[in-house]
Amino acid sequence: MEHKQWNRRQWIQGTGAAGASLLAGAWPLGAQAQSPITIGVIYVGPRDDYGYNQAHAEATAELKKVPGIKVVEEENVPETQAVQKTMQGMISQDGATLLFPTSFGYFDPHMIAIAGKNPNVRFSHCGGLWTAAKHPANTGSYFGYIDEGQYLNGVIAGHMSKSKKIGFIAAKPIPQVLQNINAFTLGARSVDPKITTTVIFTGDWSMPVKEAEATNSLADQGVDVFTMHVDGPKVVVETAAKRGKFVCGYHANQSKLAPAAYLTGAEWNWTSAMNAIIDAARTGKPHPNFIRGGLKAGFIKTSPYGSMVPEAARKNADAVKAKMIAGQFDIFTGELKDNTGKIVIPKGQAFKQTAIELESMNYLVEGVIGKI
Amino acid sequence: MNDIVLPVLWAVLGGAIRVGTPFLFVSLGECLTEQSGRINLGLEGVLVLSSMAAFGGAYLSGSPWIGVMAAMLAGALLAGVHGVLCGLRRVNDIAMGIAVMMLGTGLAFYLGKPLIQPQAPTLAPIMLGSTSSSAQLQAALSINPLFPLGVLIALALAWLLANTRWGLIVRMVGDSADAARAQGLSVNRVRTLATMAGGAIAGLGGASLSLFYPGSWNELLSSGQGLIAIALVIFARWRPLACLWASLLFGGAGALGPALQSVGINGAYYLFNAVPYALTLLILVLACTPYRRLQGAPSELSVQR
Amino acid sequence: MSPRLLATIEAAALPILAVAAALLAFGVFAAWGGYPPLEVWRLLFVGAFGDAFSWQNSLQRAAPLMLTALCVAIPAQAGLMVIGGEGALVVGALATAALPYLMTVPPSLSGTLLILLASVLAGAAFGALIGAMRQWRGVNETISGLLLAYLVINLFKHVVEGPMRDPASLNKPSTRPLDDSLMIGTIPGMDVHWGLVWGVVACVAASIWLAFTTHGFSTRVVGGNPRAAGLVGLPAHRLVITACAIGGAAAGLSGGFEVAAVHTAANASVISGLGYAGILVSFVARHQPLAIIPVAIVLGGFGAAGSLLQRRLGMPDASVQVLLGFAFVLILAAEVGRGRLRLPGRARGAKAP
User: Fold this and answer.
1) Same domain? A208 vs A278
2) pLDDT tens-digit profile of C257-281?
């Protein structure tokens, strides 16, 4: 549990050095009284989906153990006026003063609308692009540089693929997804530039039959290492394993589902981010409006390597990981071409993880077979 | 050219069976129910509840085939609720179907909550292509063990409906309740039994979803496949054997999008999803006339009057 | 007591008894799962109608259901069973979001009315198409409605995430958001948007139309007895298609409100099953527009209460679906009891017609 215990000083150093910005400004250090608090956590799907929602539910389960924190939760809340009423209900009926609406679709307009009506309640959204000019001060967003994990997935995939074809099952061609596809591909091609990634978009965040069919179609084309960006990776992991292929996980640790096929994975670890936000609320400090962090800040982590991953692959990935943690590694550096041959990042330019441009990515890099 | 066409063909063939098997069972179930003169829109609920029951049964017992039995039982019971209640006076079968759909999905989601995370023993595929040297062919021919069962049921149903006394009774009840009553038959009993049998067959579709493909339980597993069965039955003009081809066609349509993307032909994935509906609608518009009912339709069917 | 009053009492009593039975059954179901039934019942009430917040929560959830229920109820008056309301809602939502792409919409109340009109027209066209296919081609409206709904939902997703996608809608692919001046606010003093008022007005207007106008009466005649309608020379085709169009218009309007009062743009979140929920509302209300209002509010209340069951007792989110399943099955089955209510000591021997 040691790594999950949050240490504020460590966190500030971590995010600070990684360049994560806290627009709310510096916090005064020193112990302050922690008042009791009720927080509300809202999920768009089931809490035990082995994926996006489970990652948050695991962090929330840790929060429940902290004295003085009361948690109310609701799952399967659609991104409609239902979530507005859920947020308002948590405030009016349960006395929540800090809300974590975790699905991307909750941000605009739902959370913004409810935040305007409840200026004394704090809202922290996962993934949204909070900007001081547009959004209320009692709202904010946190997110992790999960593409670091997908790059490392790619490095391992690059070592493991025999066919030099790897596959990515994705929901929709949105920036967060494209960034992961590109990072995965760049990681693999850093091992062998002949590798190509074929991507299949299913069109929705959770479509078990389509996801299974996408996995099978790619396996038929000779793809032998898979990863994904859908809400619940369970189906892709299991289907790939049944076809005798390897798979890299996403969102949470899925190794239990297919120990013989699971190479490694990119996982969220929301405990530190959520703790930072809760701590600010309990001590009356300004609401941290914009929090980002990667491996270094502990916002994301990688699943332990499967036993089939050879020493050379582990060494290579661990070396990149060490560089990432030291802040010496940029995934998106020039010269970078997209898969139509257009130069998207000119020579000499490199995007740090913190670069806000990355959050509006709209291309697939060279080596990805697929179209947006 | 061949490096694109052939792989896509194999993928679609394999996919048609993989994706189409649940369609086959629900459409056969609905076909039988509708032959007796009643529509069961609740089949979506039957499919969801039975896939949960299959997964739960397999998980608790450790045997996927016990899961299959549980699915048939759950399907028959829920369809039985529909069958019995629709036999009451003034009860509308379309509305009741939707209510049963809500009850079935509600129960399945509620009881299935603890089943989202675990893994259950799944059905082992039948490896028809194990002698083939092509990996693609092997994959396409590792068949869902329930699929041959579905083909058998389709053949049996076609034969039973056409050639046996039992089939005659079902069709008579479906074509003219008055004539059946004149023969001293209990219309309600026949319809209830046909609905329950239909539910049990549809339950096999649920088992196929949660125990074979994709082979796990979650709340979006069906996503309306039970409702598509209603369209499929019309597409197949209430003939069990045609249900088989129609299911494979719908399954193939579902597999075509991912298969094309896997060889780099992208875009418009939502439009691919829409193809089966557009096709069925087109066939309806072309085949129907305002002067007589659709050929093959049981005349007691509420949606054909 | 007049037979008419008796019939009205009976019409109200049967569903109420059925809901009571469903609540009882749900309590047993909850107790079986280890949840205290008394507390479950209390929370159901508190969450639905316990205080001002709960009331507004329920009313807000009821508003779109009134409009989507009309999409079933009005064609039902003309004898058709249209269950494609979700499709009409979706095309309505798309039309509202699309109008600013096609023309400059004035940034004022008239602009808001204009985008709502677009949703009404789109929904009406959708409904009319179902009616026309039925009247002129003999395509069953239940099936075609279902198919068309699936079809337009996929087209909708394609269009809002493809050709009409706002490049600035980064991770939530949507159309361009409506200008703030076009957005619909809340009813003064309440946290409920104006869709509620429009829903109630639409239900009242529909019931006046059915009861007091010749056109409404003709529609009911066509629905009740097509042969008689033919004998007296009523234009059945026109009446049926019009009824479908009016129903579609209502559901289309609810889609317009989803965009202009809730989502600000058209995106996949708009598709949330409101059209399907409307089918059940209409059936429980026996396709009577006035009865739709209370039924929609009760259904909205169940939805609001489900939220509280989850937060306070940790019950699964599907609890409300189970309760609704029980309730709807029992309400529909209770139809069999109609005509059985008799005054004590009177008419015991008379046979129900």
Assistant:
1) no
2) 999 999 999 999 999 999 999 998 9
A235 touches chain B (CB under 8 A): yes
Residue A171 gets which letter from DSSP?
Answer: S
Chain A contacts of C171, Cβ < 8 Å?
104, 127, 129, 174-176
Instruction: Flag residues of chain C having pLDDT under 70.
Output: 1, 341-353
Helix axes B225-235, B187-211, angle to 10 degrees: 120
Residue A9 sits in the same domain as residue A135: yes
Q: Does A93 touch chain C (CB under 8 A)?
A: yes
Which of C83, C150, C316 is closest, CB to CB, to B109?
A: C316
Nearest to A221 among B263, B269, B270 (CB): B263
Confidence band for A32, pLDDT divided at 50, 70 and 90: low
- Is A305 part of any domain? no
- In this prediction, the residues of chain B whose per-residue pLDDT falls under 50 are 1, 305
End-of-domain residue from the set A278, A293, A308 = A293
Q: Which residue of B has its CA nearest to C79?
A: B305
The pair of three-digit structure tokens given for residue C176, joined into one six-digit string: 């361009």
Based on the fold, state whether residues A246 and A122 are members of the same structural domain: no
Provide the whole-model pTM. 0.91
Count of structural domains, chain C: 1
CB pairs under 8 A between B and C: 148
**Average pLDDT of the segment spanning A139-157:** 96
Instruction: Give me the mean pLDDT over the A162-175 stretch.
Output: 96
pLDDT higher than threshold 60 for residue A133:
yes
Phi, then psi, of A197 in degrees rounded to 5: -110, 125
Whether residue A314 lies inside any domain: the answer is no
Domains of chain B: total: 1
Neighbours of chain C (3+ CB pairs under 8 A): A, B
Rg (CA), chain C: 22
Q: In what order do the strands lie in the sheet with A300-302?
A: A300-302, A262-268, A246-251, A225-229, A165-170, A196-201, A368-369
In terms of domains, do A119 and A192 share one? no
Residue A183 shares a structural domain with residue A34: no
Which of B94, B277, B282 would best serve as a mutation to test chain C binding (most C beta carbons within 10 A)? B277
pLDDT tens, position by position, A34-65: 789 999 999 999 999 999 999 999 999 999 99
Q: Which chains touch B (3 or more CB pairs under 8 A)?
A: A, C
The answer to whether the Cβ–Cβ distance between A235 and B269 falls below 8 Å is no
Say yes or no: ipTM exceeds 0.95. Answer: no
Residue B131 CB-density burial (10 A; 0-12 exposed, 13-18 middle, 19+ buried): exposed
Contact residues, chain C, for A207 at CB < 8 Å: none
Helix, strand, or coil (residue A161): coil
Inter-chain residue contact C170 with A105, CB threshold 8 Å: no
What is the span of the domain harbouring residue A49?
A: 2-144+269-293
Q: Please give the pLDDT value at position A12.
A: 38
Domain CATH code at residue B210 = 1.10.3470
Q: Which of B231, B273, B285 sits opposite C139 (nearest CB)?
A: B285
A chain contacts of residue C170, beta-carbon cutoff 8 Å: 129, 174-175, 359-360
- With CB atoms and an 8 Å threshold, state whether B104 touches C316: no
pLDDT at A18 over 60: no
Sign of CA dihedral B195, B196, B199, B204: negative
For residue A192, being part of any structural domain is answered with yes
Q: Is the pLDDT of residue A117 over 80?
A: yes
Host domain of residue C111: 40-167+176-337
CA distance A350 to B17: 48
| Distance in angstroms (rounded) separating the CA atoms of residues C271 and C277 | 12
**Domain match, A136 and A14 both:** yes
Answer for the pair B191, B86: CB distance below 8 angstroms, yes or no: yes
| CATH number, domain containing residue A239 | 3.40.50.2300
> For chain A, how many structural domains are there in total?
2
Q: Tell me the average pLDDT across A285-307.
A: 95
Range of the domain at B47: 2-304
Do the chains contact at A174 and C173, CB–CB below 8 Å? yes
Give mean pLDDT, residues A341-368: 93
Q: Are residues A283 and A177 in the same domain?
A: no
